[in-house]
Amino acid sequence: MSSEPSIFFSDVNERQGSFLRRTFVLGGLTALGVLGLTARLGQLQVVQAQEYTTLATANQFNFRLVPPPRGIIRDRDGVIIAGNRPSFRVLVVRDETKDLDQTLDLLGRLIPDTLERRRGIIRDVNAAPRFSPVPVKSDLTWEEFAKVNLYANELPGVMADMHETRYYPHGGSFAHVVGYVAKVSDRDIKAVRDKGEEPSALLFNPGFRIGRQGVEAALDEQLRGEAGGQRVEVDARGRVVGEDPENSRPAVPGKEVVLTLDTDIQNRALEVFGEESGGCVVMDVRNGDILAMVSSPSFDPNLFVSGVPSNIYRAWADYERRPLLDKAIYGTFPPGSTFKMTTALAFLDAGIDPAERVTCTGGYRFGARTFRCWKAGGHGSMNMHDAIKNSCDTYFYHLCNRAGVDRIARVAEDLGFGHSYEIGIAGQSDGIVPSQKWKREYTEATSWEDDPKWYPGETLSVAIGQGALSVNALQLAVMTARLANGRKAVQPRLIKSIDGEPYAEATFADLPFSTEHLDIVRAGMAAVANDVRGTGYRASQLGLGDILMAGKTGTAQSRDYKPGESRGPRNAVWSRRDHALFVAFAPHDAPRYAIALIIQHAPAGGSADAAPRAREVMKVALLKDPDMRARIERPLPREPEAGSIIDEGAAPPPPTAAEPGSAAAEAVPVSPDPPAPQDLPGPQPYLPDPQ
Questions:
Q1: Between 36 and 356, the higher pLDDT residue
Q2: N or C: less crowded end of the chain, CB within 10 Å?
Q3: How many structural domains are present in the chain?
Q4: Which residue has the higher pLDDT, 51 or 24?
Q5: What are the start and end residues of every segment in region (Disordered) (predicted)?
């Protein structure tokens, strides 16, 4: 028996209800989505319209940092010694180049010397911020600039423009004192962060330069100025397609700095050195203004602006005369006989009679050693005036331990030795002024010597400017200025004003020396330069009427000599020669300018090498002074004719030389008329006289 199939049908209404529920759910979700999109669109177009308009504009327009022109540095007369000049340059933007290597290859065909610096260029480009132009070469010639612009369409990411670059119009004359600018290094960034500060965006700009050495480094923040912003229109790839000058912000130039230096004196000071090595400082004894501060040999600071070629820098660094070292304030030397005025003041302070005489026979026996005088045959009987004039070592050997090294050290510090000065730039050496305390501290710090006791034999070396004593040219100039001033402890000043505002001026303390003692020492210096028997007579005649110098020559040993060994002659190895020094002030009757000049490893000595050069520099300082020029150019007084009557009350005739041994001769030494050069005793100028 077969069963029939059963067919069951669902209710039509039930199926329709299920469809309606699904439709309702999907329709509701769709409606919610549309409603959400509508609400969001309304928010974007109405509520946040301004915000997104700003963002869109920001994507269209960018601000590019514009480095400010660096502040100008001028001398006391307004002459520019560090300024800015226009320069053509070529730049590369990494993000706009399809292939940096290929771009540099093509650029190398137009400017071949870029191929030599290819690795450095790639390093700089890769380190630069995005879309930041990186200078590839500055100081393009007009032909190079024209080539780059002609092929600009074929060099994506390459552009040429004109900008301002640092320029030093006097080359090496101010290289050490003013310094130079160079690229910012990682060490500069690290130094800023080590102070807890965030580096300025300027420091990351590839074209920005930072001050190095001298005034450029010391006043770097004042000279930098404030960066500007250039508003440019860019496309989707960030390439510049237009500029918006109305909304750009110009850069603010750095502040102008005026120094006390005089360009003419500075240039002459470097010129007189020639190929010799050393330092020179010229000061105004009235206010401490530094008119010249030169180190020789020098270097061209303009090369540092775009980067010194490695071969040139290596040549500077390896040259034995050290052109990169500032010998005016950093290099220290034994002062030699230029220190004898200091020793003489210590003698006077100790109560030693300046008329007391010491007989020089060419040396002084002390203990088991004979200390030689520079003049082998001796000077004969010497008082203090004669000992300074003739630079007699034996006189100072004989009396120095009656004053003691501590008194000599105290007087030396009062005259300016053993100090660095607030002249606005760093890098000064304090030098060494030996004393009993110094030796104890030095022994404890170095453990170099077993015996910290100071021995009297050591005082003999210090008394003539040798031994452990070391000074720099600035300190020698300060000493000379204080002796010339006679009343105040003059402090040197280098920075005159910043942005028109006077720089801080130091107050001068009184000198702790009596006028009588200073007059004795100054009279000795006047005799050095103006007495025919003085060690500096031949080289100290200015030829400027009645304006005369007062000075002191010096020759300092640079090494120890073996018994019987002669000092280095002209043809000796340079590094084995002695140093030559000269200090002076002028006019000697109304001092205005002081000079200190050191020649490192000189061919002969102070009177032969240093004094003639100092004389030439001093002449420029005097000739630039209006009062001195008026004194030089004034007509000489007419001599009365025979039998004429001199009116009562008229000025007396000029004094004549006093008789030897008279009171007038002892008070103010007056030299006889200078003989003709051929009549001078001994060899002619540039003889190897060690003093």
A1: 356
A2: N
A3: 2
A4: 24
A5: 631-691
Give the range of the structural domain holding residue 250, as residue numbers without chain letter.
63-259
Confirm if 291 and 259 have CB atoms less than 8 A apart. no
CATH number at residue 137: 3.90.1310.10
56 domain residue, yes or no: no
Q: Which residue has the higher pLDDT, 7 or 314?
A: 314
Contact 256, 72 (CB under 8 A): yes
154 within a domain of the structure (yes/no): yes
pLDDT at residue 415 greater than cutoff 60:
yes
Residues 300 and 199 in one domain: no
Q: What pLDDT band is residue 684 in, cutting at 50, 70 and 90?
A: very low
3-state secondary structure of 108: helix
Q: How open is the CA angle 347-353-355, to the nearest 5 degrees?
A: 120
- Asked if 265 and 256 touch (Cβ cutoff 8 Å), the reply is no
Q: 683: buried, middle or exposed (CB in 10 Å: 19+, 13-18, 0-12)?
A: exposed
Contacts of 132 (CB under 8 A, 6+ apart): 64, 93, 205, 206
Residues 195 and 90 in one domain: yes
Helix (H) or strand (E) holding 240: strand 240-243
Q: In what order do the strands lie in the sheet with 61-66?
A: 61-66, 228-234, 240-243
pLDDT over threshold 50, residue 369? yes
**Residue 444 in tokens:** 């404890």
Decide if 555 is inside a domain: yes
Range of lowest pLDDT (25-29, 64-68, 95-99, 156-160): 95-99
225 and 297 share one domain: no
Q: For residues 595 and 617, give the distance between their C-alpha atoms in angstroms, rounded to a whole number.
A: 8
At 55, the amino acid letter reads L
138 and 192 housed in the same domain? yes
**What pLDDT is recorded for position 6?**
56
**Sheet harboring 290-296: ordered strands across?**
290-296, 277-284, 593-600, 579-586, 550-556
Give me the mean pLDDT over the 538-560 stretch: 89
Answer yes or no: do 384 and 527 share one domain: yes
DSSP assignment of 255-285 equals PPEEES--HHHHHHHHHHHTT-EEEEEEEET
Which of 259, 278, 309 finishes a domain?
A: 259
CA nearest neighbour of 337 among 59, 582, 81: 582
Read off the CATH number of the domain in which 621 is found. 3.40.710.10
Select from 278, 299, 280 the least CA-distant residue to 290: 280
Q: Are 272 and 599 in contact (CB under 8 A)?
A: no
Separation of alpha carbons 473 and 582, rounded Å: 10
- Let me know the angle formed at the C-alpha of 575 by 554 and 447, rounded to the nearest 5 degrees: 85
Kindly state the tokens that stand for 331. 């290099």
Domain check: are 339 and 222 in the same one? no
- Is 488 a domain residue? yes
Q: How many CB atoms lie within 10 A of CB 111?
A: 17
**Can you tell me whether residue 179 is helix, strand or coil?**
coil
Q: How far is 465 from 337, CA to CA, in rounded Å?
A: 6
State the first-to-last Cα distance of the chain, in angstroms, to the nearest integer: 153
List the Cα angle 458/459/460 in 5-degree steps: 90
Is 449 in the same domain as 523?
yes
| 193 in the same domain as 117 | yes
- pLDDT tens across 286-330, in order? 999 999 999 999 999 999 988 888 889 899 999 999 999 999 999
What are residue 475's phi and psi, to 5 degrees?
Answer: -65, -40
